[in-house]
Design brief:
Blueprint: H1 4-13, E1 17-21, H2 32-40, E2 47-52, H3 57-67, E3 71-74, H4 80-83, E4 90-95, H5 107-113, E5 119-123, E6 153-155, H6 164-171, E7 175-176, E8 183-185, E9 188-189, H7 191-203
Parallel strand pairs: 1-2, 2-3, 3-4, 4-5, 5-6, 6-7
Antiparallel strand pairs: 8-9
The protein binds ligand LARABZUK.
Length: 205
């Protein structure tokens, strides 16, 4: 979210949570001052999620103190020890490189290192971007037999109104996350695209 009208349109369309990117090099980057109006526009019962990528602890702490997000979401190589030092629940995001098996990165290692994560988010890192890439990944790599009751697992990466229902029936995620697929340009959401996306989610099997 970068605009108050997009916060309102997303909440009105029924989104459970809205993301705010505190990654300076992102096309959707927010400063604390720029985020204040957005957080003030958040209605009750919709969760605010502050996104980071290998941040300094002091930056995370400042965002918590100034804006009081409900959840943190970490998109880089943050360890479990780093993530759990903050007085907020967190989601650990990861790319499909953690699923490839046979490499030094293994999905089970990621989960073991983040025992206090409230959930995990599996995203596409195919374009080299560590979030907001608009690229899908091969959903057949989704962890087999994953138990969303024990570890909620959210699907992200290149989702749109056209593919989200197929994605949901393919992997049965705990939730879905979208950014580029409801935008007209980076950071600028479309109320029509948001409504269409949410409608497809709500009618998915
Ligand atoms: O959105 C960004 O610019 C971003 C930058 C750095 C780290 C994470 C970022 N976004 C993370 C998200 O949760 C996106 O919603 C997710 O990656 C899906 O993006 P998209 O493929 O564009 O739907």
């Amino acid at each position: 979210m970068t605009r108050v009208e997009d916060v309102r349109a997303s909440a009105a369309a029924g989104a459970d949570a809205l993301g705010f990117v505190f990654v300076p090099k992102s096309k959707r980057a927010l400063t604390i001052d720029a985020a204040r109006d957005l957080f003030d526009a958040m209605p009750p019962f919709v969760q605010s999620v502050a996104l980071f990528l290998d941040p300094d602890a002091a930056w995370v702490q400042s965002v918590i103190e100034e804006l009081a997000p409900d959840l943190l979401q970490f998109h880089g190589n943050e360890s479990g020890a780093f993530c759990r030092q903050f007085p907020r629940p967190y989601i650990k995001a990861a790319g499909t490189d953690w699923l490839s098996g046979g490499t030094e990165r293994r999905w089970s290692d990621l989960i073991d290192d983040h025992p206090t994560a409230r959930g995990f988010l599996l995203d596409s890192h195919e374009t080299g971007a560590l979030g907001g890439s608009g690229a899908t990944f091969d959903w057949s790599h989704w962890p087999k037999g994953h138990d969303n009751d024990r570890q909620p697992l959210i699907l992200a990466g290149g989702l749109t109104a056209a593919n989200v229902a197929s994605a949901i029936s393919a992997v049965h995620p705990y939730g879905v996350d979208v950014s580029s697929g409801v935008e007209v340009s980076p950071g600028i959401k479309s109320a029509e695209k948001i409504q269409e996306f949410m409608s497809r989610v709500n009618h998915a099997e």
